[in-house]
Structure formats: C-alpha cells, structure tokens
Amino acid sequence: MSNPIGLYLHVPFCDAKCPYCDFYSMRGSTEDWERYTESIISHLYDYQDRNLAVDSVYFGGGTPSLLGAERLGRMLEAVRGAFALSPEAEITVEVNPTREPGRFFEGLAEAGVTRVSIGLQSAQAAELRALGRRHTAEQAAHAVALAHRAGIANVSLDLMLAVPGQTAESLRDSVRFCAQAGAAHVSAYLLKIEPGTAFYARRETLPLPDEDGTCDLYLEACAELEACGFAQYEISNFALPGFESRHNLKYWRCEEYLGLGPAAHSFLDGRRFYYPRDLAGFLRGDPPVDDGPGGGFDEFAMLALRLTEGLREESCRARFGYPIPEAMRRRAAPLGRAGYCRVSPEGIALTRAGFLVSNAVIGELLA
Fold first, then answer.
1. Based on the number of CB atoms within 10 Å of its own CB, is 64 exposed (0-12), middle (13-18) or buried (19 or more)?
2. Tell me, what's the pLDDT at 22?
3. Four-point Cα dihedral 50, 249, 251, 65, nearest 10
C-alpha cells in the first residue's frame, strides 16, 4: 500500500454568500443536501479497488455543517468502507458559528471527527457586519465551548486581516479573543478582493487600509498570535505546539491527496486533476479534468517556501536525489541580505518580511 493520502470533500452549500467569497457555493434545500451526500458516497466507493490509505479527511466548503452531523457521519462511514482510514487520522469539519443546534458537536465526535474549523473572521461586531457575517463573537465562543464539551479539543478559528474598518487595536482584541476562547489553531488570512464578488464591485469605496497599513496589520497579527502562544508554521497559519493542520501540511509539503466535489482539486499518482465548478455535472457523474503532471521541483519548492521551515536540503535530497540547486542559493543570497529570507546550509526560508511579498520572492528564487 502506498503512503497515506489526504482526502478533501467539498460541500458547496451556504446559507448566504459573503461579499468577499469567491469559493464555489450556493444555497440548497434538504433534498439537495441528501442527493449530494449520496453522490459523494458513490464517488468514494469508486476508489475502493485502489487500496488507498488515508490519514487526513477535510470537509470544506461552503458550509459543511449545513449538512448536519448525520450526513457527515454517513460520508465518513463510506470513507472507512472505501479506504484504509488510519485510526489516528485527523478529521476536520468546517463549521459556521450560527448553526450548532442540539447535539451537533456530539454527533461529530461520535462519527469520528477530531478537529473543527470555525469561521470567526473577527471578534468585532462592526467588522463582522462589514464582512456580511451573520454570527456574533459570542456565538463563535459558544461553538468552541460546545466542541470542547463534546471531546473535540482541536479547534481552529479563522481570522481575516485588513478588513474594512480594522485597526491594530481591534485586530489585537480579535487575536486575544481566539486565545481566550480556547482555540488551538488560528488561520489568519489577508482579505483579497476577488473578481466576481460583491466586494469587487464596491472596491473603490471600501474603507480598506493601504499597502503599508495592510503590511502593518499582518505583522501585528503575527506578533500578537506569537504573544498568545501560537507559533507560526505557514504564511497564514499559527498553532499551539502539536496542533498544526496535518491535512493542510500535505498540500504545502507536496504530498498526494484526493478531492471530491465540484471545484475540488486532486494530486494523485503524480498527476493533478479537478472537478469543474458545476454541481449538476458532478451529480451526473462527469469525470474530473486532467491538469497535467505535478510534484516537480519548482512546485515542491514554491509550496515549501510558504512554510516557516522553508525549503530544506534534506527534503530535496530525499525527494529528488539532489540538493537545493546552487543557482537558487545564489539568487537567495541578495534576498537574504535584504531581509526577505534566511539562507543556511540546511535550506532557504522566508522571513515575515518575505511572506508579505512571497509571490515576488518565490518568483525570484525560481527564476
């Protein structure tokens, strides 16, 4: 049996579309949710004869919690039936703080879920309104408490940085809220205005910080998260010791994973493929689209440089049989002197200043 892969299951349903969101999602009925659950189960069993081992499962979206614990549990039963699921697997469900009625978290725990990711975004009421979020900070804290009470200790909270009206003080308060609520992991993402979103249509009038202000907020978030005990391990991700997202680390370490659902991407058997953003086509059984070979050195290096550990000499030798190319080390030297990366015999790693301009720095290293 090959090395364990990650499994991503995309749930494309949401109560409403947030003005910044460009993920593939839509409203759905109870009938839609049931039909989709059965379709995912059928797709999972299509892989039964492959004898694939899985050690991480991630329900993303959309809002997977809309389906309810019973449907999510049925999908997990199908995962166990179609794959060799590790008893120590990390199993994550993304949760909206406004929808955790009754025994929802107990149902998740009974189904085998070990981790939940809650979309807080901000602990400030004005910022939540600006982001079109319909929950309160108190509801998010209650969701964390319910997850803990159900025995799910590994709770991640999402924060958005450089949102309309955000200040250094309000951001620090949101970070402290995450720590006080009992989060073990925080994903802190810079707001990106994507074409096709409601924010994009209003981009000229949104009260957003300028480039320097955005950089300052990112550095402020990093410093405050660190002060609260969260160690940065990726550009936008911070964790208490031992609570790093094992599933997302598969992406950044260029390991293989299977994605099912419209808009889900995969990297399996050395090739990349994806399902189009088309729910009807997925339900019809339309095949995924081939996206070419994956896992080459440039891709491996680009993903590794998102991590604070960076591109490691030993990892390159283990995977490709050769060290970090000398030409890359030569290009890294002036970037290191400028403070954008650290260069050592063990490898190349971006600094926080480098993370702020990561596309440019990585592009230069891979030129």
1. buried
2. 87
3. 80
Between CA 367 and CA 351 the distance in angstroms is: 19
Local structure of 201: helix, strand or coil: helix
List, in order of start, the domains of the chain with CATH numbers: 5-251 (3.20.20.70), 296-367 (1.10.10)
In this prediction, residue 1 carries a pLDDT of: 54
pLDDT at 15: 87
In one-letter notation, the amino acid at residue 350 is L
Inter-CA distances, 272 with 291, 295, 357, Å: 5, 9, 27
Which pLDDT belongs to residue 187?
A: 98
Core vs surface per residue 256-292: b (16+ CB within 10 A) or e: bbbbbbbbbbbbbeeebbbbeeebeebbeeeebeeee
Which residue intervals of the chain are DSSP H helices?
30-45, 68-82, 104-111, 125-130, 137-149, 168-181, 198-201, 211-227, 246-252, 279-284, 297-304, 313-320, 326-337, 352-356, 358-365
- pLDDT tens per residue across span 340-360: 999 999 999 999 999 999 999
Q: How far apart are CA 328 and CA 350, in angstroms?
A: 13
For the chain, list residues with pLDDT below 70. 1, 99-102
pLDDT of residue 17: 86
Report the pLDDT value the prediction gives residue 2, as an integer from 0 to 100.
76
Contacts of 30 (CB under 8 A, 6+ apart): none
Angle value at C-alpha 300, between 298 and 303, nearest 5 degrees: 105
What is the predicted pLDDT for the residue at 26?
87
